[in-house]
Amino acid sequence: MKVGIDMGTVQGGAPARLDIEELLATRLLVQGNSGSGKSHLLRRLLEQSAQWVQQVIIDPEGDFVTLSDRFGHVVVDGERTEAELVGIATRIRQHRVSCVLSLEGLEADEQMRAAGIFLNALFDADRDYWYPVLVVVDEAQLFAPAAGGEVSEEARKLSLGAMTNLMCRGRKRGLAGVIATQRLAKLAKNVAAEASNFLMGRTFLDIDMARAADLLGLDRRQAEMFRDLPRGSFVALGPALSRRPLPVTIGAVETSARSTSPKLMPLPDAPQDVEDLIFTPDPDEFARPPVRRAPPAPRPTTDILTELSRARPEPVQPEARAPAPEISVEERESLLDQALAEILANPDAAFRADAELFQDFLVRCRIRRVPGAPLSLPAFRRKMAVARSGVDPETAATDVWARALDLSRSVTEDLQGVFLLVAQAAVRGLACPSDARIARAYGTHSARRARRLLGYFEEQGLVVIHSDLAGHRIVAFPDLACETLPGDANGPDLADSHRDAAE
Questions:
Q1: Cα(first)–Cα(last) distance of the chain, in Å?
Q2: pLDDT at residue 424 in the model
Q3: Element spanning 465, H or E
Q4: Which H helix or E strand runs over 179?
Q5: E strand or H helix at 475, and its extent?
Q6: Region labeled Disordered — which residues (predicted)?
Q7: Tens digits of per-residue pLDDT, 260-303?
Q8: Could you give phi then psi for residue 66, rounded to 5 degrees?
Q9: Which domain holds residue 444?
Q10: Span 179-197, mean pLDDT?
Protein backbone atom coordinates (compact mmCIF):
# COMPACT_ATOMS: atom_id res chain seq x y z
CA MET A 1 0.00 0.00 0.00
CA LYS A 2 1.23 3.49 -0.86
CA VAL A 3 0.15 6.68 0.89
CA GLY A 4 1.51 9.47 -1.28
CA ILE A 5 1.47 13.09 -0.16
CA ASP A 6 1.79 16.10 -2.46
CA MET A 7 5.05 17.99 -1.87
CA GLY A 8 4.65 20.39 -4.79
CA THR A 9 5.38 20.11 -8.50
CA VAL A 10 8.07 18.75 -10.81
CA GLN A 11 9.07 20.05 -14.22
CA GLY A 12 6.01 20.17 -16.43
CA GLY A 13 3.62 20.86 -13.56
CA ALA A 14 3.03 17.24 -12.51
CA PRO A 15 2.58 16.69 -8.75
CA ALA A 16 5.63 15.63 -6.74
CA ARG A 17 4.56 12.65 -4.65
CA LEU A 18 6.30 11.41 -1.51
CA ASP A 19 5.49 7.85 -0.33
CA ILE A 20 5.00 8.11 3.44
CA GLU A 21 5.15 4.36 4.05
CA GLU A 22 8.46 4.12 2.19
CA LEU A 23 9.76 7.20 4.02
CA LEU A 24 9.10 5.51 7.38
CA ALA A 25 11.47 2.73 6.35
CA THR A 26 14.19 4.72 4.60
CA ARG A 27 14.47 8.16 6.33
CA LEU A 28 15.11 11.58 4.74
CA LEU A 29 17.94 14.14 4.66
CA VAL A 30 17.25 17.77 3.66
CA GLN A 31 20.15 20.14 2.95
CA GLY A 32 20.25 23.80 1.96
CA ASN A 33 21.85 27.07 2.99
CA SER A 34 19.95 29.58 5.09
CA GLY A 35 17.13 31.01 2.99
CA SER A 36 16.90 28.04 0.63
CA GLY A 37 13.46 27.02 1.95
CA LYS A 38 14.30 24.07 4.25
CA SER A 39 11.82 25.07 6.97
CA HIS A 40 9.14 25.66 4.34
CA LEU A 41 9.79 22.16 2.97
CA LEU A 42 9.56 20.58 6.44
CA ARG A 43 6.34 22.47 7.14
CA ARG A 44 4.82 21.23 3.87
CA LEU A 45 5.82 17.65 4.72
CA LEU A 46 4.38 17.91 8.25
CA GLU A 47 1.10 19.48 7.13
CA GLN A 48 0.50 16.99 4.35
CA SER A 49 1.28 13.92 6.50
CA ALA A 50 -0.35 15.06 9.77
CA GLN A 51 -3.45 12.90 9.26
CA TRP A 52 -1.46 9.79 8.34
CA VAL A 53 1.31 9.45 10.92
CA GLN A 54 2.28 10.65 14.40
CA GLN A 55 4.89 13.42 14.36
CA VAL A 56 7.58 14.63 16.76
CA ILE A 57 9.47 17.83 15.84
CA ILE A 58 12.75 18.89 17.48
CA ASP A 59 12.52 22.66 16.99
CA PRO A 60 15.53 24.74 18.08
CA GLU A 61 13.98 28.10 17.09
CA GLY A 62 10.31 27.60 18.03
CA ASP A 63 9.21 27.99 14.38
CA PHE A 64 6.91 24.96 14.29
CA VAL A 65 4.81 25.63 17.41
CA THR A 66 2.14 27.17 15.12
CA LEU A 67 1.25 23.62 14.02
CA SER A 68 -0.56 23.21 17.35
CA ASP A 69 -3.39 25.59 16.38
CA ARG A 70 -4.16 23.89 13.05
CA PHE A 71 -3.23 20.24 13.63
CA GLY A 72 -3.37 19.77 17.40
CA HIS A 73 0.35 19.25 18.09
CA VAL A 74 1.27 19.46 21.78
CA VAL A 75 3.98 22.06 22.44
CA VAL A 76 6.61 20.87 24.95
CA ASP A 77 9.04 23.47 26.32
CA GLY A 78 12.58 22.11 26.53
CA GLU A 79 13.42 23.92 29.76
CA ARG A 80 12.51 20.98 32.01
CA THR A 81 14.18 18.44 34.24
CA GLU A 82 15.38 15.13 32.83
CA ALA A 83 12.62 13.23 34.63
CA GLU A 84 9.94 15.53 33.19
CA LEU A 85 11.27 15.16 29.63
CA VAL A 86 11.49 11.37 29.92
CA GLY A 87 7.95 11.14 31.33
CA ILE A 88 6.47 13.38 28.64
CA ALA A 89 8.27 11.54 25.82
CA THR A 90 7.06 8.18 27.16
CA ARG A 91 3.46 9.40 27.21
CA ILE A 92 3.87 10.88 23.74
CA ARG A 93 4.58 7.39 22.40
CA GLN A 94 1.98 5.71 24.60
CA HIS A 95 -0.90 8.02 23.59
CA ARG A 96 0.34 8.55 19.98
CA VAL A 97 0.12 12.33 20.20
CA SER A 98 2.06 14.57 17.80
CA CYS A 99 4.23 17.16 19.55
CA VAL A 100 6.77 19.95 19.05
CA LEU A 101 9.76 20.06 21.42
CA SER A 102 10.49 23.79 21.45
CA LEU A 103 14.07 24.61 22.47
CA GLU A 104 13.76 28.35 21.86
CA GLY A 105 15.62 30.49 24.37
CA LEU A 106 17.95 27.72 25.60
CA GLU A 107 21.72 27.83 25.30
CA ALA A 108 23.37 25.42 22.87
CA ASP A 109 24.44 23.10 25.70
CA GLU A 110 20.90 22.98 27.12
CA GLN A 111 19.36 22.44 23.66
CA MET A 112 21.59 19.43 22.99
CA ARG A 113 20.92 17.98 26.43
CA ALA A 114 17.13 18.37 26.19
CA ALA A 115 16.99 16.98 22.63
CA GLY A 116 19.20 14.02 23.57
CA ILE A 117 17.11 13.12 26.63
CA PHE A 118 13.83 13.43 24.71
CA LEU A 119 15.00 11.38 21.71
CA ASN A 120 16.48 8.66 23.93
CA ALA A 121 13.17 8.41 25.83
CA LEU A 122 11.30 7.96 22.53
CA PHE A 123 13.84 5.31 21.54
CA ASP A 124 13.59 3.45 24.87
CA ALA A 125 9.77 3.21 24.89
CA ASP A 126 8.22 -0.18 25.66
CA ARG A 127 7.79 -2.51 22.70
CA ASP A 128 3.99 -2.23 22.94
CA TYR A 129 4.27 1.45 21.98
CA TRP A 130 6.52 1.09 18.92
CA TYR A 131 4.02 2.85 16.67
CA PRO A 132 5.39 4.59 13.55
CA VAL A 133 6.52 8.15 14.30
CA LEU A 134 7.96 10.75 11.94
CA VAL A 135 10.77 12.44 13.93
CA VAL A 136 11.73 15.74 12.29
CA VAL A 137 14.93 17.45 13.48
CA ASP A 138 15.51 20.97 12.17
CA GLU A 139 19.09 22.33 12.15
CA ALA A 140 20.39 18.80 12.71
CA GLN A 141 24.02 19.96 12.61
CA LEU A 142 23.43 21.47 16.07
CA PHE A 143 22.51 18.07 17.55
CA ALA A 144 24.85 15.83 15.52
CA PRO A 145 27.95 17.96 14.89
CA ALA A 146 30.80 16.54 12.83
CA ALA A 147 33.31 17.95 15.33
CA GLY A 148 33.34 19.26 18.87
CA GLY A 149 32.66 22.94 19.39
CA GLU A 150 32.04 25.27 22.30
CA VAL A 151 29.56 22.92 23.98
CA SER A 152 30.50 20.50 26.73
CA GLU A 153 31.68 17.03 25.74
CA GLU A 154 28.95 15.44 27.88
CA ALA A 155 26.14 17.29 26.08
CA ARG A 156 27.69 16.59 22.66
CA LYS A 157 27.97 12.84 23.33
CA LEU A 158 24.41 12.66 24.68
CA SER A 159 22.91 14.47 21.68
CA LEU A 160 25.07 12.73 19.06
CA GLY A 161 24.28 9.32 20.55
CA ALA A 162 20.55 10.04 20.47
CA MET A 163 20.71 11.20 16.83
CA THR A 164 22.73 8.12 15.89
CA ASN A 165 20.15 5.87 17.54
CA LEU A 166 17.37 7.68 15.69
CA MET A 167 18.93 7.31 12.24
CA CYS A 168 20.73 3.96 12.63
CA ARG A 169 18.50 1.90 14.94
CA GLY A 170 15.20 3.75 15.12
CA ARG A 171 13.42 2.00 12.23
CA LYS A 172 12.66 -1.22 14.15
CA ARG A 173 11.19 0.91 16.94
CA GLY A 174 8.95 2.81 14.54
CA LEU A 175 11.07 5.99 14.54
CA ALA A 176 11.67 7.49 11.09
CA GLY A 177 14.20 10.32 11.10
CA VAL A 178 13.81 13.41 8.90
CA ILE A 179 16.82 15.66 9.43
CA ALA A 180 17.49 19.08 7.92
CA THR A 181 20.83 20.85 7.92
CA GLN A 182 22.37 24.01 6.50
CA ARG A 183 25.71 22.36 5.80
CA LEU A 184 26.45 18.70 5.16
CA ALA A 185 30.09 19.28 6.11
CA LYS A 186 29.01 20.17 9.66
CA LEU A 187 26.76 17.09 10.08
CA ALA A 188 28.19 13.86 11.50
CA LYS A 189 28.74 11.45 8.60
CA ASN A 190 27.39 8.36 10.40
CA VAL A 191 24.08 10.21 10.94
CA ALA A 192 23.76 11.54 7.38
CA ALA A 193 24.80 8.23 5.81
CA GLU A 194 21.74 6.37 7.15
CA ALA A 195 19.27 8.39 5.05
CA SER A 196 18.17 6.86 1.75
CA ASN A 197 16.06 9.83 0.56
CA PHE A 198 17.50 13.27 -0.18
CA LEU A 199 16.17 16.74 -0.94
CA MET A 200 19.11 19.01 -1.79
CA GLY A 201 18.57 22.76 -1.99
CA ARG A 202 20.67 25.81 -2.77
CA THR A 203 24.24 25.75 -1.46
CA PHE A 204 27.40 27.65 -2.37
CA LEU A 205 30.46 26.13 -0.67
CA ASP A 206 32.41 23.67 -2.79
CA ILE A 207 32.71 21.04 -0.04
CA ASP A 208 28.93 21.01 0.52
CA MET A 209 28.17 20.91 -3.21
CA ALA A 210 30.59 18.01 -3.64
CA ARG A 211 28.96 16.01 -0.83
CA ALA A 212 25.47 16.75 -2.15
CA ALA A 213 26.46 15.67 -5.65
CA ASP A 214 28.06 12.51 -4.26
CA LEU A 215 24.89 11.57 -2.37
CA LEU A 216 22.79 12.10 -5.50
CA GLY A 217 25.19 10.23 -7.79
CA LEU A 218 26.11 13.36 -9.80
CA ASP A 219 29.55 14.32 -11.09
CA ARG A 220 31.38 17.46 -9.99
CA ARG A 221 30.43 19.34 -13.14
CA GLN A 222 26.75 18.83 -12.36
CA ALA A 223 27.31 19.93 -8.75
CA GLU A 224 27.41 23.55 -9.90
CA MET A 225 23.62 23.39 -10.35
CA PHE A 226 23.14 23.71 -6.59
CA ARG A 227 24.33 27.35 -6.75
CA ASP A 228 21.54 28.24 -9.17
CA LEU A 229 18.57 26.63 -7.41
CA PRO A 230 15.90 29.23 -6.52
CA ARG A 231 14.39 29.44 -3.06
CA GLY A 232 11.96 26.58 -2.46
CA SER A 233 13.46 24.35 -5.17
CA PHE A 234 15.21 21.07 -4.33
CA VAL A 235 16.68 18.08 -6.15
CA ALA A 236 14.96 14.89 -4.94
CA LEU A 237 16.28 11.33 -4.93
CA GLY A 238 15.34 8.16 -3.06
CA PRO A 239 12.86 5.28 -2.96
CA ALA A 240 10.17 7.47 -1.37
CA LEU A 241 10.67 10.26 -3.94
CA SER A 242 12.28 9.33 -7.25
CA ARG A 243 14.69 6.72 -8.58
CA ARG A 244 16.53 9.42 -10.53
CA PRO A 245 17.51 12.97 -9.46
CA LEU A 246 14.38 15.07 -9.96
CA PRO A 247 13.97 18.87 -9.50
CA VAL A 248 11.02 19.63 -7.21
CA THR A 249 9.36 22.96 -6.38
CA ILE A 250 7.78 22.84 -2.91
CA GLY A 251 4.11 23.83 -2.73
CA ALA A 252 2.32 26.31 -0.45
CA VAL A 253 1.70 25.74 3.27
CA GLU A 254 -1.33 26.40 5.48
CA THR A 255 0.52 27.61 8.60
CA SER A 256 3.39 30.03 8.99
CA ALA A 257 6.37 30.42 11.29
CA ARG A 258 6.40 33.06 14.00
CA SER A 259 9.61 34.48 12.53
CA THR A 260 9.86 35.57 8.89
CA SER A 261 12.64 36.60 6.53
CA PRO A 262 13.57 40.31 6.71
CA LYS A 263 11.93 42.60 4.15
CA LEU A 264 13.15 45.92 2.79
CA MET A 265 11.29 49.02 3.99
CA PRO A 266 12.06 52.72 3.41
CA LEU A 267 13.94 54.71 6.06
CA PRO A 268 12.06 57.45 7.92
CA ASP A 269 12.82 61.08 7.13
CA ALA A 270 15.84 62.20 9.17
CA PRO A 271 15.08 64.98 11.71
CA GLN A 272 17.02 68.24 11.57
CA ASP A 273 18.72 67.67 14.94
CA VAL A 274 19.75 64.06 14.23
CA GLU A 275 23.19 64.42 15.92
CA ASP A 276 21.67 65.81 19.11
CA LEU A 277 19.06 63.06 19.01
CA ILE A 278 21.71 60.32 18.87
CA PHE A 279 24.47 61.68 21.10
CA THR A 280 22.40 63.33 23.83
CA PRO A 281 21.47 60.75 26.50
CA ASP A 282 17.98 60.52 27.92
CA PRO A 283 17.95 61.70 31.59
CA ASP A 284 16.36 58.39 32.66
CA GLU A 285 18.59 56.24 30.46
CA PHE A 286 21.18 55.38 33.12
CA ALA A 287 18.54 54.70 35.75
CA ARG A 288 16.83 52.02 33.70
CA PRO A 289 18.18 48.48 34.14
CA PRO A 290 19.42 46.76 30.98
CA VAL A 291 16.68 44.84 29.21
CA ARG A 292 17.53 41.30 28.20
CA ARG A 293 15.31 38.95 26.28
CA ALA A 294 14.16 36.22 28.61
CA PRO A 295 13.19 32.77 27.37
CA PRO A 296 9.46 32.03 27.42
CA ALA A 297 8.18 30.56 30.67
CA PRO A 298 7.70 26.79 30.39
CA ARG A 299 4.23 25.36 30.65
CA PRO A 300 3.61 23.44 33.87
CA THR A 301 4.16 19.71 33.53
CA THR A 302 0.66 19.05 34.86
CA ASP A 303 -0.81 21.01 31.93
CA ILE A 304 1.21 18.94 29.42
CA LEU A 305 0.13 15.64 31.00
CA THR A 306 -3.50 16.77 31.10
CA GLU A 307 -3.37 17.63 27.40
CA LEU A 308 -1.74 14.30 26.57
CA SER A 309 -4.48 12.40 28.38
CA ARG A 310 -7.17 13.99 26.21
CA ALA A 311 -8.13 12.45 22.92
CA ARG A 312 -6.25 13.86 19.93
CA PRO A 313 -8.47 16.28 17.97
CA GLU A 314 -9.32 15.31 14.46
CA PRO A 315 -7.80 17.54 11.74
CA VAL A 316 -10.13 20.26 10.56
CA GLN A 317 -11.62 19.18 7.27
CA PRO A 318 -11.96 21.84 4.59
CA GLU A 319 -15.36 20.46 3.53
CA ALA A 320 -17.96 18.50 5.42
CA ARG A 321 -18.22 14.94 4.19
CA ALA A 322 -21.38 12.96 3.83
CA PRO A 323 -21.88 10.44 6.64
CA ALA A 324 -20.62 6.95 5.91
CA PRO A 325 -23.37 4.59 4.73
CA GLU A 326 -24.67 2.10 7.26
CA ILE A 327 -23.39 -1.44 6.70
CA SER A 328 -24.07 -4.71 8.45
CA VAL A 329 -21.78 -6.30 11.00
CA GLU A 330 -20.88 -9.01 8.47
CA GLU A 331 -19.92 -6.44 5.83
CA ARG A 332 -17.79 -4.52 8.32
CA GLU A 333 -16.01 -7.72 9.41
CA SER A 334 -15.40 -8.54 5.75
CA LEU A 335 -13.72 -5.15 5.21
CA LEU A 336 -11.57 -5.66 8.30
CA ASP A 337 -10.59 -9.14 7.14
CA GLN A 338 -9.64 -7.82 3.70
CA ALA A 339 -7.37 -5.14 5.21
CA LEU A 340 -5.73 -7.72 7.48
CA ALA A 341 -5.28 -10.21 4.63
CA GLU A 342 -3.44 -7.59 2.54
CA ILE A 343 -1.03 -6.98 5.41
CA LEU A 344 -0.35 -10.65 6.11
CA ALA A 345 0.17 -11.34 2.39
CA ASN A 346 3.50 -9.52 2.70
CA PRO A 347 6.22 -12.18 3.32
CA ASP A 348 7.93 -9.91 5.86
CA ALA A 349 4.77 -9.25 7.88
CA ALA A 350 5.54 -12.10 10.28
CA PHE A 351 8.73 -10.36 11.39
CA ARG A 352 7.36 -6.82 11.80
CA ALA A 353 6.35 -5.40 15.19
CA ASP A 354 2.66 -5.67 16.08
CA ALA A 355 2.44 -1.91 16.64
CA GLU A 356 3.77 -1.26 13.12
CA LEU A 357 1.28 -3.71 11.60
CA PHE A 358 -1.50 -2.12 13.65
CA GLN A 359 -0.71 1.33 12.27
CA ASP A 360 -0.73 -0.10 8.74
CA PHE A 361 -4.08 -1.79 9.46
CA LEU A 362 -5.67 1.45 10.70
CA VAL A 363 -4.52 3.32 7.58
CA ARG A 364 -6.02 0.66 5.31
CA CYS A 365 -9.31 0.83 7.26
CA ARG A 366 -9.43 4.61 6.80
CA ILE A 367 -8.81 4.22 3.07
CA ARG A 368 -11.71 1.75 2.87
CA ARG A 369 -13.82 4.11 5.05
CA VAL A 370 -14.72 1.30 7.44
CA PRO A 371 -17.43 2.78 9.73
CA GLY A 372 -17.50 2.41 13.48
CA ALA A 373 -14.85 2.71 16.19
CA PRO A 374 -11.41 1.36 15.16
CA LEU A 375 -10.14 -1.87 16.68
CA SER A 376 -7.99 -1.63 19.79
CA LEU A 377 -4.46 -3.07 19.72
CA PRO A 378 -5.44 -6.18 21.81
CA ALA A 379 -8.44 -6.83 19.53
CA PHE A 380 -6.20 -6.45 16.47
CA ARG A 381 -3.67 -8.90 17.91
CA ARG A 382 -6.45 -11.41 18.57
CA LYS A 383 -7.81 -11.06 15.04
CA MET A 384 -4.29 -11.38 13.61
CA ALA A 385 -3.61 -14.53 15.67
CA VAL A 386 -6.72 -16.19 14.24
CA ALA A 387 -5.82 -15.13 10.70
CA ARG A 388 -2.24 -16.42 11.05
CA SER A 389 -3.49 -19.83 12.20
CA GLY A 390 -4.67 -20.52 8.64
CA VAL A 391 -8.04 -21.93 9.71
CA ASP A 392 -10.51 -22.42 6.85
CA PRO A 393 -14.12 -21.08 6.97
CA GLU A 394 -15.65 -24.55 7.42
CA THR A 395 -13.49 -25.36 10.44
CA ALA A 396 -14.00 -21.87 11.90
CA ALA A 397 -17.76 -22.55 12.08
CA THR A 398 -17.39 -25.72 14.19
CA ASP A 399 -17.87 -26.08 17.94
CA VAL A 400 -14.45 -27.65 18.43
CA TRP A 401 -12.78 -24.56 16.93
CA ALA A 402 -14.81 -22.34 19.24
CA ARG A 403 -13.44 -24.40 22.16
CA ALA A 404 -9.93 -23.97 20.73
CA LEU A 405 -10.41 -20.19 20.65
CA ASP A 406 -11.51 -20.20 24.29
CA LEU A 407 -8.56 -22.40 25.24
CA SER A 408 -6.11 -20.04 23.50
CA ARG A 409 -7.06 -17.24 25.87
CA SER A 410 -5.20 -19.08 28.63
CA VAL A 411 -1.87 -18.05 27.05
CA THR A 412 -0.49 -14.55 26.54
CA GLU A 413 -1.32 -12.49 23.43
CA ASP A 414 2.04 -13.10 21.76
CA LEU A 415 1.61 -16.90 22.03
CA GLN A 416 -2.00 -17.18 20.84
CA GLY A 417 -1.04 -17.21 17.16
CA VAL A 418 1.32 -20.17 17.71
CA PHE A 419 -1.24 -22.05 19.81
CA LEU A 420 -4.01 -21.61 17.23
CA LEU A 421 -1.67 -22.61 14.36
CA VAL A 422 -1.04 -26.00 15.97
CA ALA A 423 -4.66 -26.31 17.19
CA GLN A 424 -6.12 -25.85 13.70
CA ALA A 425 -3.81 -28.59 12.38
CA ALA A 426 -5.15 -30.91 15.09
CA VAL A 427 -8.79 -29.96 14.48
CA ARG A 428 -8.45 -30.44 10.71
CA GLY A 429 -6.35 -33.63 11.00
CA LEU A 430 -3.28 -32.13 9.33
CA ALA A 431 0.40 -32.82 9.92
CA CYS A 432 2.04 -31.09 12.86
CA PRO A 433 3.66 -27.81 11.69
CA SER A 434 7.44 -27.75 11.44
CA ASP A 435 9.67 -25.74 13.77
CA ALA A 436 10.26 -23.25 10.95
CA ARG A 437 6.51 -22.72 10.49
CA ILE A 438 5.94 -22.29 14.24
CA ALA A 439 8.86 -19.86 14.46
CA ARG A 440 7.35 -17.72 11.67
CA ALA A 441 4.02 -17.60 13.54
CA TYR A 442 5.90 -16.22 16.54
CA GLY A 443 7.84 -13.70 14.45
CA THR A 444 11.29 -15.25 14.72
CA HIS A 445 13.70 -17.37 12.67
CA SER A 446 14.81 -19.48 15.67
CA ALA A 447 13.73 -23.14 15.50
CA ARG A 448 14.98 -23.62 19.07
CA ARG A 449 12.54 -21.01 20.30
CA ALA A 450 9.70 -22.80 18.47
CA ARG A 451 10.49 -26.00 20.34
CA ARG A 452 10.57 -24.09 23.62
CA LEU A 453 7.10 -22.70 22.91
CA LEU A 454 5.65 -26.19 22.42
CA GLY A 455 7.40 -27.28 25.60
CA TYR A 456 5.81 -24.37 27.43
CA PHE A 457 2.33 -25.39 26.21
CA GLU A 458 2.99 -28.91 27.49
CA GLU A 459 4.12 -27.61 30.87
CA GLN A 460 0.84 -25.70 31.15
CA GLY A 461 -1.13 -28.89 30.50
CA LEU A 462 -2.57 -27.63 27.22
CA VAL A 463 -0.96 -30.20 24.90
CA VAL A 464 0.76 -33.59 24.98
CA ILE A 465 3.70 -34.09 22.63
CA HIS A 466 4.76 -37.55 21.43
CA SER A 467 6.29 -39.18 18.33
CA ASP A 468 5.48 -42.01 15.94
CA LEU A 469 7.84 -44.86 15.05
CA ALA A 470 9.54 -42.72 12.41
CA GLY A 471 10.32 -40.01 14.96
CA HIS A 472 7.81 -37.52 13.56
CA ARG A 473 6.14 -35.19 16.04
CA ILE A 474 2.49 -35.42 17.08
CA VAL A 475 0.77 -32.79 19.24
CA ALA A 476 -2.42 -33.86 21.05
CA PHE A 477 -4.98 -31.51 22.62
CA PRO A 478 -6.72 -33.36 25.49
CA ASP A 479 -9.36 -30.63 25.96
CA LEU A 480 -10.28 -30.80 22.26
CA ALA A 481 -10.09 -34.60 21.94
CA CYS A 482 -7.98 -34.38 18.78
CA GLU A 483 -4.35 -34.47 17.69
CA THR A 484 -2.23 -33.60 14.67
CA LEU A 485 -0.94 -36.12 12.18
CA PRO A 486 2.80 -36.92 12.42
CA GLY A 487 4.91 -34.08 11.06
CA ASP A 488 8.62 -33.54 10.47
CA ALA A 489 9.84 -31.00 13.05
CA ASN A 490 12.85 -30.21 10.82
CA GLY A 491 10.75 -29.75 7.70
CA PRO A 492 10.53 -26.51 5.67
CA ASP A 493 8.31 -23.54 6.34
CA LEU A 494 5.22 -24.34 4.26
CA ALA A 495 4.52 -20.61 3.81
CA ASP A 496 7.88 -20.25 2.06
CA SER A 497 7.23 -23.35 -0.05
CA HIS A 498 3.85 -22.09 -1.24
CA ARG A 499 5.32 -18.69 -2.03
CA ASP A 500 8.20 -20.21 -4.03
CA ALA A 501 5.76 -22.38 -5.98
CA ALA A 502 3.62 -19.34 -6.80
CA GLU A 503 6.68 -17.47 -8.05
A1: 20
A2: 92
A3: strand 464-467
A4: strand 175-181
A5: strand 473-477
A6: 284-304
A7: 556 667 777 766 676 666 777 766 665 655 555 555 566 676 67
A8: -70, -15
A9: 389-502
A10: 85
Within 8 A by CB and 6+ apart from 92, the residues are 56, 74, 99, 122, 308
Question: What percent of the chain is predicted at pLDDT more than 70?
Answer: 84
Contacts of 204 (CB under 8 A, 6+ apart): 33, 226, 227
Contact call for residues 20 and 189 (beta carbons, < 8 A): no
CATH code for position 172: 3.40.50.300
Q: Rounded distance, CA 432 to CA 438, Å?
A: 10
Handedness of CA 26, 27, 32, 35 (dihedral sign): positive
405 against 210, higher pLDDT: 405
pTM of the shown model:
0.57
Segment 309-352, tens digit of pLDDT: 665 656 555 555 555 567 787 888 888 888 888 888 887 777 77
Calpha distance 213→22 (Å, rounded): 23
> Helix, strand, or coil here: 99?
strand
| 49/112 same-domain check | yes
CA 320 → CA 5, 253, 310, 316, distances in Å?
A: 21, 21, 24, 10
Question: Of the candidates 187, 227, 174, 223, which has an alpha carbon nearest to the alpha carbon of residue 204?
Answer: 227
Number of domains in the chain: 3
Task: Yes or no: say if 181 and 199 are a contact pair by the CB < 8 Å rule.
Answer: no
Q: Please state, in angstroms and rounded to a whole number, the distance separating the CA atoms of residues 494 and 136.
A: 41
| Helices 329-344, 354-367: inter-axial angle, 10-degree rounding | 130
* pLDDT class of 13 with cuts at 50, 70, 90: confident
CB 102 within 8 A of CB 58: no
Please tell me the predicted confidence (pLDDT) of residue 500: 42
Q: Are 250 and 354 in the same domain?
A: no
Is 8 within a domain? Answer: yes
